[in-house]
What we know:
The structure holds two protein chains of two kinds.
Chain A: E1 4-7, E2 10-13, E3 19-25, E4 31-37, E5 44-51, E6 54-57, E7 64-66, E8 76-78, E9 87-97, E10 100-105, E11 109-113
Parallel strand pairs in A: 2-11
Antiparallel strand pairs in A: 1-3, 3-8, 4-5, 4-9, 5-6, 7-8, 9-10, 9-11
Chain B: E1 4-7, E2 10-14, E3 19-25, E4 31-37, E5 43-49, E6 52-56, E7 59-64, E8 69-74, E9 83-90, E10 94-96, E11 100-105
Parallel strand pairs in B: 2-11
Antiparallel strand pairs in B: 1-3, 3-8, 4-5, 4-9, 6-7, 7-8, 9-10, 9-11
Amino acid sequence: NAGVTQTPKFRILKIGQSMTLQCTQDMNHNYMYWYRQDPGMGLKLIYYSVGAGITDKGEVPNGYNVSRSTTEDFPLRLELAAPSQTSVYFCASSYLTSGHYEQYFGPGTRLTVT
Amino acid sequence: KNEVEQSPQNLTAQEGEFITINCSYSVGISALHWLQQHPGGGIVSLFMLSSGKKKHGRLIATINIQEKHSSLHITASHPRDSAVYICAVGGNQFYFGTGTSLTVIP
Lengths: 114, 106
């Protein structure tokens, strides 16, 4: 299994541009997540999905959109990029084991908006 | 106030030292996770625990559910242990601490 894969690894955007961060997992996990990690801050949940066709907002959803048309894919869309969206973005998936959720993380996407 | 507090924020140790990182949380949880993030950014799960103690090699994690507190111990620390250690709690959604940056000097 490749686990959780993310593309691209790095991206520089100009203010107002749009882009999609791709995330794919091949472990048949139902739950998928998008987080952002800012310097000195803990990971913050942007959006999550409990299965194909179902998504919900996390703690910091403004400026982002997601879709979950398949179990494997959970892309994150940035519309009208702003400098405040400069961050490292992590996608994760999880499954229920022994009553608890085990999370697997992608390698991250480092995004700079200038 | 953050749901998850870690201490210390930064830690420098000499190779071979015993290291303790602490995590306190304020929310109800089904499990607590210790994660490791190396320079370059990848995050891996070290432990998932809901009670008692777990051990993997030189790493030991303990949790006290009543006190809402967990500790991560590293015995005989090594420079390759240098990383950021993150505590996360929750169920199907997670709350994360800000991490403890550990540097082990040879």
